[in-house]
Amino acid sequence: MDLISFINSQLGPRLGLFIARYISRKQAYRLADWMTGLVVKREDSWVIRGVRANQSVVRGIPFESPELDKAVYEVIRNTARGYADWYRAVAGGPEVLEQSLIIEDRLKERVFQSVREKHGVLFVGPHMSSFNIMLLAIAVMGHPVQALSYPDVRGSYVVDNEVRRKFGVNLTPISFKALREAMRRLRNYGFVMTGIDRPDVGGEPLTFFDRKVVLPVGHARLAIRTGANVLVGRIEDEGNGYYRGKCQEFIEPELTGDEDKDVLNLAQRIIKICEDLIRESPSEWLMFHAIWPDALPPQSDEK
Prior knowledge:
This protein is of the alpha/beta class. Helix content is 50%, strand content 17%. It is built from twelve helices and nine strands.
């Protein structure tokens, strides 16, 4: 088993969680940087090719350009350090988790205002920085939240989800049952979170970085059908294990009576905001799946 396969297996996060109890943050970062060096050497791996293709599109640089070497390294390093922070926060318990997240006052106020006006809140955003820190920190703060995740749960995701549930995150892989639960929660002025920047065969073609790609629209349909407000934001790395929850835009969905049109318009508006967030800090966009297949050069043994 190579390093990438090990990291993505159930053994990877279990070992990370164990080690985090006994080493300092400085030592954890050194270990993360060492592993980053090993991972980026595997230029033919699906992880590196996916990151390189995505960064190529986002930065407007050809896939083969040496300029992308640094960009790929930064994405992998930020991922590794983010997991180091997450494992250390989990090892430290609820108090450390809560202290790890700074929530902007603007974000808090918009959420409270939405609830006062009897609207649920749907938090959506791209996979940036340590989304895990935010999920767990909000849960231990005592705010009930449902997180919609991808239905295909294997390898390291199994352990990640075990940890999330342990700290009170109501994690529901996307299904008809999970979506019904999300609708009930939002209609009762509750809080639902999900990522929306990974291709979805059940989605619709949206324009993302000037290219068409089939992306999720279920979040937009939830908002349209429940009257929930949409908070589009991200997590920012503040350094030394601290992260900030940022509200980029708060959307009150527009209803014209044509649900399908309203859903597509809202989904497109949201993904454009996410595009702007990624452009601001592309090295914190921790997406390994190749979003645009045509950005990948041909490879005979493509996985």
